[in-house]
């Protein structure tokens, strides 16, 4: 009998070592040793120092932890658990999850009383009560669950519970948890070691995991019993290959569905799960407490409380409360409360609360609360609250609240409240706080400019707003408005030749100019204009192009005089007869160049005075 005994002892020792190693690994964060010297510092700062040395994160409710209270602790090579015992009140409980230590107040103790245990052919039916260990008061809304079998229930108003377990094992471990109570585990029949192998691989934060329950859809579609269950089981998550639901709560995982991450999830109307790590389909809606990856599709909407990686399709809307890495496509709305890397495509509106790296395409509007690195295309309006590196294209207008490195194209207007290194093109109006690129529009405005504004009216702070009175060889009374800056300014001019009625003529002139600043007093102006002239004696319009080179002399801060030669080129674009073509232009007694029978040019002059 010695050999079997030695074999038994060897197996028992190996089992003990394995169990101890598993337990040590599970408690790794709290067992890590640290050295700290904290003298009258905020509790929150002391926790930050412990998490930094331990390479993990604390998760707790900031409304319960006294973050601003001052603590003093000196520890040399002590475990994190021991340090926490010194700086926290004695009623706190510490629970571990991958890369997290969860701090939860648990000033009270629970007691589970089993009233009846029925052994069936393929399992057990267990009933009993949950009570307060100190007062004996019955506890309602406590969660009773079996981790390995993914079974759970809630105690009723009298603290009563009943749970059915189908299993071939000869033991069960029922865990009881309730907010503000210390969690307990009761072994039914033979005791077993429960390992934390069901924790969700996506990571853990109990406060974030309940965010979907606080949304409008969550409050409406998730029952109070499910919210209580979620609160009680905030530290437990499991993985499963498949689940099916009719509605939230009516699931193949029962009341535990909100704690299970599935590889395939099928929701006839709608479902509420911890997350999806594969594919999820729903006739109406999908709600995930935590993360989702690969694909979600719903007839109405998808909602993810954590991160989304993959593709979401919805008839109405997609909502992700953290980051998106992939595609959101919806008939009406897409919303990402974190960074969006990929594409948002919606019939109406796309929004992102942080940076967009990719594309937003919407029938009405796109909005990024942070930066845009990519492109926005909207039927009406695009808005970015921070910098843009890319494109904005909208039927109505685009708004950038910070700097732009790229292009804005708006049917009506473009507005940038920062510095532009790029292009603005608008049907009517462009505005830039600092222009270091190009504006093209009917009206352009910039608070400062080292670039080019191309339009009919260009209002540059510190630039040109000149009114000129002038005369030339065709009209002796002209008034012009020049706006822009020395690099490029626009010209609008109207004139009349005051003469006998038979030879009276009128002109409208539009063009661009550039000033070569020779000194503080002298400048050389070069201009190119298009002239439309009406001759009353012939009742006909003539179109021609005119170039000008004028020497400008500043006589004061707001007055200058100018004079110089002009050259005009006249083509028979109006299909005039030879007699009509030569009747009024070129003017008589001016040097003329005939390029062909339909193209003539002449040398002229212009002189005048500029104000403002």
TrEMBL record:
Keywords: Signal. Gene3D superfamilies: Carboxypeptidase-like, regulatory domain. It holds the Pfam family CarbopepD_reg_2. Residues 1-21 form the signal peptide. The keyword Signal applies. Transmembrane segments: none annotated. This is Carboxypeptidase-like regulatory domain-containing protein. The lineage of its organism: Bacteria, Pseudomonadati, Bacteroidota, Cytophagia, Cytophagales.
